[in-house]
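Our collaborator T.R. sent over the components below with a one-line note: 'Predict the complex.' Nothing else. No constraints on interfaces, no templates requested, no preferences about which chain binds where. So this is a plain run: every listed entity goes in together, and whatever single assembly comes back becomes the starting point for the next discussion.
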Amino acid sequence: MSLEPSSVNPSSAASASTQALSIDVLVSVGRHSLTERPRRADLDARALELALRLRDKRGAQVNACHVGEGGQQAGSDTEAALRDYLGMGLENLTWIDAPQGSDALGLLDEHLRAGQVSAGPRLVLCGMRAEQGEGSGLLPFLLSESLGWAYVPAVVEVEDVASEDGHWYTTVLQALPRGQRRRLRVRLPALLGIDSAAAQPRQSAFGPARRGRIEQRQLEASVMADESLANWPLQPAKPRPKRLKIVTATNARDRFKAAAAKAESTGGKVLQDVSPEQGAEAVLALLKEEGVLR
Amino acid sequence: MLNTLLPLLLLAVLALAVVGAVRRIALWRRGRPSSVPVLTGLMAMPRRYLVDLHHVVARDKVFANTHVATAGGFVAAAALLLVVYLVPLPGSVETVLEVLLLVFSATMFVGARLVAKRRRHPPARLSKGPWMRLPKSLQAFSGSVFLIALANLGLLPEGLISGVIGWALAAVLLVALGLGLAELLLGMTWGGPMKHAFAGALHLAFHRRAERFSTRKSDREGKVHRSTGLKALNLEDETAPLGVATPEDFTWNQRLGFDACVQCGRCEAVCPAFAAGQPLNPKKLIQDMVLGMTGHSDAAYAGSPYPGKAVGEHQGTPSGPIVVEAGGALLDADTLWSCTTCRACVEECPMMIEHVDAIVDMRRFMTLEQGQTPGKGSEVIDNLIATDNPNGYAPAARMHWAADLSLPLMRDLGQADVLLWLGDGAFDMRNQRTLRALVKVLRAAEVDFAVLGDEERDSGDVARRLGDEATFQRLAKANIATLEKYRFQTIVTCDPHSFHVLSNEYGAFGGHYRVRHHSTYIDELMAADRLSLRSWKGGSVTYHDPCYLGRYNGEYEAPRRVLTALGIELNEMQRSGFRSRCCGGGGGAPITDIPGERRIPDMRMQDVAETGAELVAVGCPQCTAMLEGVVDATAQVRDIAELVADALISEDAAGKERAAKPQVVEVSP
Ligand code: SF4
Ligand code: SF4
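Returned assembly:
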């Protein structure tokens, strides 16, 4: 660490304030898994949560946008879900009108290109996949391709945004299987797909949700029909029945014990009567196998 | 000298008191508007004071007499003093009044001595500070007035009123009277302990729940006065405020009510959250609201603090936020979320202050505007929004517990005598046993009943207590719309929370129903001889009054009658009836889960243990869950419905005296 930060890190303080970080969050309409009532989509809400934290932490400017069928706005399912996002503390949100059966890709591409106002750093956050429609999780890949930006999936945390040698970078944590994390440095502008392991979204409050403005936007030039979708047969998903664990307990205490019992673990090895060295080796081997150590 | 200086002193004090009154009233009026009938209120005030307020004060007999002597003596003495010294009167009248003055000041003096005695070793619930000097002021006033009256009647020995001694005595009397007047008259409007008299009188007159008070008519009809439903927020108007963020967001008569507090600490003594060491003390909460009006810090507060929070670290501003996330403002959020809304404080408050209203008002802002419902609060609210039940179960699973009971559905029948409201306990394995027992009882009495089945939704109780008025109103309206489709005479429920909401809070949205708690309904069935029951064989039993049945709805007797009719001799807990201690399950407290030093249900089970009872009878799913969750309890927890169902002599086997086994319910063909 140098004692003269200015000579080492010329960008940080001054330019960070003049060149505000601009974050676009792509939000979709979610459905409750049991009742199918419209609401904010969980992953998109987590993306918005990360953006709002960056807003609180370093004054980022947060714009949220939704692409979807317009039409009767007030009282529609879409409006209800969008108001859930507004209730998290947004003043306004853009709703880009997409006629039924059209592809969101071109619309988002145009909207995001038009959103470039300054030379400042730029991030786009979205949930890794939508809760309805195709829900393939492909959209961010296609979008990053058409914009020519990087895409990082499974992001759980945006740690920092800083510039170096005239370029902006962000440091993010990416979720890997079994709770592992990988720290990545990504050059901006970039798209980040937010994972379900990211921080829980904040509560959506009634007051701000009701006050927030939804701005309708028409981008007719970019409307394209989604041909592949038109050719796919769609049918509702059916949940698989789950076998219930039957507990025969007559009092509260036994019921509690049964409910709180840990699941039996499978696999693995039980080491007994081994020397410390053997034990340490076994642990080391496991860590290597899991890829925690290299 | 006395007779020339006294009128001047009185006039000056009066004038200053009026200035103080105008200033204080202006301070209250900085709150939000609230329309109350001013003249009617003022006219009803004496009765509210003498009947309703005294009714609460009289629960402490000794102090009630003390207060009557002191306050009554003071009011009469002060009035006489003003008349005698400010109004020119014929000599004979004056003598009569002087004699009366003598009597009343003597009465007051006796009262003041008793107050002083109580203050010598004050109980912890009383505030100290300026309150400790009040008995002295009372004695100074009454003593000096007594001596002045004596002197004027010529009853003092000549040696005391002439010469140097006379002058000295006059000076001493004037100073004492001056000090007394400053405390008792100026203090009423300028602050200090006597503020409670002035604010209290107006608070009674302009109380926002006028229904709470008795009237001559209600007395004649023998009605009990109760007003416990929360007031609805206006959600139609998008500019209407959502709850209370700053001291000025309270209505002016709420602010006035805060000022009426006498810091007697009766609320503190009964508050379960305070006793559990959670950071709440209803007395301090009200005092903080007073400090907020003037923007003071709580450094001068001289009562018990919020457990675990030092005094002097909080300060409010008149129009600044009451709660800020970092702490240090008037209150911390965990104080508001510790309350179980048990209403013990309101029931006990001699000044008729509405603590629960204030707490819920502030919670509303935190939930509706800030989205800061703590603990599992936001999850529960999300579940209520998405699934109409607090735990997020599939609405279609609401009737799974009764798959083998073939319960009649309103949807199929369209009408029935009784609509059995199940409540969210239908999803809870423990409460399902209660429900099955209740169904068994209803069938044994051949009641014509039906359930809403999947059409029922959460009543909205918990959403409302968590401050989510929007979700409450949505659920209320949806339930009212459902109930509108069917014809029934009575709603019966085993959940006092649903009971309260259905009968006291749906009215504001157009839902007016005749609702009965199952204990009341079973009591009616027994009175009509529709149940044949064996008598109780078990050990000793006590009964726990649910807050939402007892204090909220005044039903203390029916459950006891049912238990007695079973042949149970109740072993009452020390705190029972209107003084029952909360189980800790109300107001969303188990959801927000603010840590304390103890758990409220543990304390309640300790109360049970003290009676030596082997079984505690309850009438609420929340109480059952809370009390049954106590580890190593000495008593079993059973719902009244279960006890009755166990005692049923089934028709076919009546002769053999064989009772149906518990938890087996006949399936109707
Ligand atoms: S709020 Fe009521 S009960 Fe509590 S201290 Fe004040 S006057 Fe007494
Ligand atoms: S309602 Fe109950 S828990 Fe809340 S402040 Fe009053 S006594 Fe305490």
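Summary for T.R.: Residues B 270-273, 280, 282, 339-345, 355-356 surround iron/sulfur cluster (ligand 2) (CB under 6 Å).
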